[in-house]
Each structure stands twice: as structure tokens, then as C-alpha cells.
Amino acid sequence: MLRGVAVALAVTVLWVSGGFRGLVSAQRDSRASLELVDGGYVNLLIGISDRVPNNPALLDRIMFVFTEASKFLFQATKKRAYFKDIHILVPESWEDSAEYSIVTWQRFDQSDVLVDFSGANKTNLPYTNRSTPYTNKATPCGEPGQFIHLTPEYILSQSIANPYGPYDKVGGGS
């Protein structure tokens, strides 16, 4: 628990009009790249698959998880880094909300974090058939990976996340 530390986090929820499908591509649009600016990571893109049913609790939980992860990152880096700006893409199949903004540069196939059911990206990895979080990385050390994959079950259930370590350190919370 951090005390006396203010970590500002702007979360924008975007509703995708026109739908989206597809796997994450290896290339990202340079204007959409995750960047560290004045200690804050900006343009972190979280994409919720159109296979995931409308669930406001999931959206709330994603916001909570990444807010807690930002606090942990800030503490772990001795106040040098945190998540400043996060964009969450919700599929067109979800009910529209006045809280949602219109998509500008964001595309599902460029998401840094995918929220989808297990095995959905067909990577043929041995752990893609359960709720295990994983990173798809085919690049050398020090280079960015393609994406992080989290299942809705992992985000919503502390009992699923607990085996991976302290919940707040792996992207969860209480």
C-alpha cells in the first residue's frame, strides 16, 4: 500500500463502431506506440475481444487492476514510472455508454494487452487453453513483445490469479 503518493492515471474507454476482428499484428502504428513520457507510460492500449460478452464489471475490474499496477510500478521503479494514459477498446457488440469516447488512432490488432478467452489467438502455446496470463514475444530481450494476453476469468477471479504470485504484482487486486 502506498501512502502519500499521487499517481495520476487517465483511462479512456473507447467504443468501436464498425466492429473489429483479427489477431494482433507484429507491427504497430508509430503514432500509437507505448511511450515513456516524463515518467508516465502513455498510449497503453487494452483491447477487449468481440468474443467477450458485455460486462460492466469486467471493465471496472480492468480499470482497477491497471490503477493498482500503476501504483506498484511507481513504487517498484522508485517513483520513476507509472501508467499515465490507458485506452480500453470495447467491442461494438457491447452496449454503448455516454462514458465511451470515439476511437481515433486505436485499433484492436495493435493492442498491448488483449482480453479474450483462452486459446483465442491460436498461438499453439501449451498454456493457451486455460486462464493463464502470458506474453506473446518472438523478439530478442530488450525489444517489445507483441502483446500480453489476459482472460476475462483471470481479471475477474482472484482465485485464478493467486497462483501467479502476489495479486497486485501480476496485474490484479483485491
From TrEMBL:
A Pfam entry, by short name: CLCA
UniProt superkingdom: Eukaryota
Entry-linked InterPro entries: CLCA_N
Annotated Calcium-activated chloride channel N-terminal domain residues: 35-170
Name of the protein this chain belongs to: Calcium-activated chloride channel N-terminal domain-containing protein
Species per Swiss-Prot/TrEMBL record: Patiria miniata (Bat star)
Source species taxonomy: Eukaryota, Metazoa, Echinodermata, Eleutherozoa, Asterozoa
